[in-house]
Amino acid sequence: MTGAAGGLVDALVARGDWSGAGDLGALAERAAAAALREAGLDPAAFEISVLFTDDAAIARLNGQFRGRAQPTNVLSWPAFALAPPAPGAAPPPPPAQAGARVSLGDIALAAETVANEAQAQNLALGAHLAHLIAHGALHLAGYDHGCDADADLMETLERRALGKLGIADPYG
Question: What domain range is 77 assigned to?
Answer without folding.
Answer: 9-164
